Amino acid sequence: MQLIDADDVNPDGSLSLVPPSKQPYDFVVAGIPFTYADLLTNRGLDFVKSYADGIDRNGDGKLTINDRRVEGSTGVIENAHRKGLLVHTWTFRNDASGYGFNDPKAEMTFYFNLGLDGLFTDFPDTGVAARAESTVIVKEKNDLKSCRKNF
After folding, report:
1. How far apart are CA 25 and CA 142, in angstroms?
2. CB within 8 A of 143, min separation 6: which ones?
3. What is the longest distance spanned by two Cα atoms in the chain?
4. Which 8-state DSSP code applies to residue 19?
5. What are phi and psi of 2, to 5 degrees?
6. Domain enclosing residue 128, as ranges
7. How many domains, in total, are found in the chain?
8. DSSP H helical segments within the chain, as ranges?
9. Is the pTM of this model over 0.90?
10. Which residues contact 8 (CB under 8 A, 6 or more apart)?
Protein backbone atom coordinates (compact mmCIF):
# COMPACT_ATOMS: atom_id res chain seq x y z
CA MET A 1 0.00 0.00 0.00
CA GLN A 2 1.06 3.56 -0.70
CA LEU A 3 0.09 6.01 1.99
CA ILE A 4 -1.50 9.24 0.77
CA ASP A 5 -1.39 11.55 3.77
CA ALA A 6 -2.60 15.09 4.36
CA ASP A 7 -2.24 17.65 7.07
CA ASP A 8 -5.71 19.19 6.76
CA VAL A 9 -8.79 19.74 4.61
CA ASN A 10 -8.85 22.85 2.40
CA PRO A 11 -11.90 25.14 2.35
CA ASP A 12 -12.96 23.65 -1.03
CA GLY A 13 -13.00 20.13 0.47
CA SER A 14 -9.78 18.88 -1.09
CA LEU A 15 -6.94 17.55 1.04
CA SER A 16 -4.09 19.90 1.93
CA LEU A 17 -1.00 18.17 0.55
CA VAL A 18 1.69 20.63 1.64
CA PRO A 19 4.73 20.35 3.94
CA PRO A 20 5.09 18.54 6.22
CA SER A 21 2.65 16.24 4.42
CA LYS A 22 3.83 17.04 0.91
CA GLN A 23 5.43 13.71 -0.02
CA PRO A 24 6.53 10.38 1.46
CA TYR A 25 9.76 10.74 3.45
CA ASP A 26 11.42 7.86 1.60
CA PHE A 27 10.80 9.79 -1.64
CA VAL A 28 12.57 12.82 -0.13
CA VAL A 29 15.58 10.70 0.88
CA ALA A 30 15.71 8.96 -2.52
CA GLY A 31 15.29 12.22 -4.44
CA ILE A 32 12.03 11.07 -6.03
CA PRO A 33 10.16 14.26 -6.92
CA PHE A 34 6.60 12.83 -6.71
CA THR A 35 4.42 14.51 -4.09
CA TYR A 36 1.26 13.00 -2.63
CA ALA A 37 -0.73 15.17 -5.04
CA ASP A 38 1.33 13.78 -7.95
CA LEU A 39 0.62 10.22 -6.79
CA LEU A 40 -3.11 10.86 -7.22
CA THR A 41 -2.76 11.77 -10.92
CA ASN A 42 -3.04 9.15 -13.69
CA ARG A 43 0.75 9.09 -14.05
CA GLY A 44 1.21 8.87 -10.29
CA LEU A 45 -1.31 6.04 -9.91
CA ASP A 46 0.52 4.16 -12.68
CA PHE A 47 3.72 4.63 -10.68
CA VAL A 48 2.05 3.36 -7.49
CA LYS A 49 0.68 0.35 -9.40
CA SER A 50 4.29 -0.63 -10.22
CA TYR A 51 5.02 -1.41 -6.55
CA ALA A 52 1.74 -1.53 -4.57
CA ASP A 53 -1.72 -3.14 -4.65
CA GLY A 54 -3.47 -0.05 -3.40
CA ILE A 55 -3.45 3.29 -1.68
CA ASP A 56 -4.26 4.19 1.91
CA ARG A 57 -6.03 7.49 1.70
CA ASN A 58 -6.55 9.91 4.57
CA GLY A 59 -10.26 10.34 3.80
CA ASP A 60 -11.88 10.74 0.39
CA GLY A 61 -15.28 12.34 0.71
CA LYS A 62 -15.28 15.98 -0.25
CA LEU A 63 -15.68 17.84 3.03
CA THR A 64 -16.46 21.49 3.45
CA ILE A 65 -14.23 22.86 6.18
CA ASN A 66 -16.84 25.28 7.52
CA ASP A 67 -19.59 22.83 8.35
CA ARG A 68 -17.79 19.50 7.78
CA ARG A 69 -20.57 18.45 5.41
CA VAL A 70 -19.73 15.58 3.09
CA GLU A 71 -20.56 16.46 -0.52
CA GLY A 72 -19.47 13.32 -2.34
CA SER A 73 -16.48 11.70 -3.95
CA THR A 74 -13.30 13.53 -4.89
CA GLY A 75 -12.75 11.01 -7.71
CA VAL A 76 -9.72 9.38 -6.10
CA ILE A 77 -11.48 6.06 -5.45
CA GLU A 78 -12.79 5.83 -9.01
CA ASN A 79 -9.42 6.75 -10.55
CA ALA A 80 -7.52 4.29 -8.37
CA HIS A 81 -9.99 1.51 -9.22
CA ARG A 82 -9.58 2.23 -12.95
CA LYS A 83 -5.87 1.59 -12.42
CA GLY A 84 -6.60 -1.67 -10.60
CA LEU A 85 -5.65 -0.34 -7.17
CA LEU A 86 -7.48 -0.95 -3.90
CA VAL A 87 -8.37 2.03 -1.71
CA HIS A 88 -8.45 2.02 2.09
CA THR A 89 -8.77 4.86 4.58
CA TRP A 90 -8.52 5.42 8.32
CA THR A 91 -9.27 5.82 11.26
CA PHE A 92 -12.98 5.68 11.90
CA ARG A 93 -14.08 5.85 15.52
CA ASN A 94 -17.43 5.67 17.27
CA ASP A 95 -16.46 8.59 19.48
CA ALA A 96 -14.80 10.99 17.03
CA SER A 97 -17.16 11.90 14.22
CA GLY A 98 -17.86 15.48 13.32
CA TYR A 99 -17.15 15.36 9.62
CA GLY A 100 -20.76 15.66 8.57
CA PHE A 101 -22.07 12.60 10.41
CA ASN A 102 -23.64 12.07 13.81
CA ASP A 103 -23.75 8.28 13.38
CA PRO A 104 -20.39 6.48 12.97
CA LYS A 105 -21.98 3.51 11.18
CA ALA A 106 -23.66 5.87 8.70
CA GLU A 107 -20.29 7.57 8.12
CA MET A 108 -18.51 4.29 7.42
CA THR A 109 -21.37 3.07 5.21
CA PHE A 110 -21.20 6.31 3.20
CA TYR A 111 -17.52 5.73 2.40
CA PHE A 112 -18.12 2.07 1.53
CA ASN A 113 -20.88 3.24 -0.81
CA LEU A 114 -18.38 5.58 -2.50
CA GLY A 115 -16.47 2.41 -3.37
CA LEU A 116 -13.92 2.22 -0.56
CA ASP A 117 -12.41 -1.26 -0.42
CA GLY A 118 -11.63 -1.22 3.28
CA LEU A 119 -11.11 0.98 6.29
CA PHE A 120 -9.35 1.03 9.61
CA THR A 121 -11.44 1.45 12.72
CA ASP A 122 -10.98 1.06 16.45
CA PHE A 123 -14.56 -0.26 16.55
CA PRO A 124 -14.66 -3.33 14.26
CA ASP A 125 -18.25 -4.21 15.15
CA THR A 126 -19.37 -0.87 13.71
CA GLY A 127 -17.17 -1.33 10.65
CA VAL A 128 -18.57 -4.80 9.97
CA ALA A 129 -22.14 -3.54 10.38
CA ALA A 130 -21.42 -0.62 8.03
CA ARG A 131 -19.94 -2.97 5.44
CA ALA A 132 -23.04 -5.17 5.66
CA GLU A 133 -25.28 -2.11 5.08
CA SER A 134 -23.28 -0.90 2.10
CA THR A 135 -24.96 -1.05 -1.29
CA VAL A 136 -21.64 -1.68 -3.06
CA ILE A 137 -20.64 -5.24 -3.87
CA VAL A 138 -16.94 -5.86 -3.33
CA LYS A 139 -15.16 -8.31 -5.60
CA GLU A 140 -12.25 -9.90 -3.78
CA LYS A 141 -9.01 -10.49 -5.59
CA ASN A 142 -7.99 -14.17 -5.41
CA ASP A 143 -4.52 -13.25 -4.17
CA LEU A 144 -6.02 -11.37 -1.21
CA LYS A 145 -8.05 -14.41 -0.13
CA SER A 146 -4.89 -16.47 0.32
CA CYS A 147 -3.22 -13.59 2.16
CA ARG A 148 -6.08 -13.38 4.65
CA LYS A 149 -5.80 -17.09 5.46
CA ASN A 150 -2.25 -16.55 6.69
CA PHE A 151 -3.20 -13.98 9.31
Report:
1. 32
2. none
3. 44
4. T
5. -105, 120
6. 2-149
7. 1
8. 25-30, 36-39, 42-49, 76-82, 104-114, 124-133, 142-149
9. no
10. 15, 16
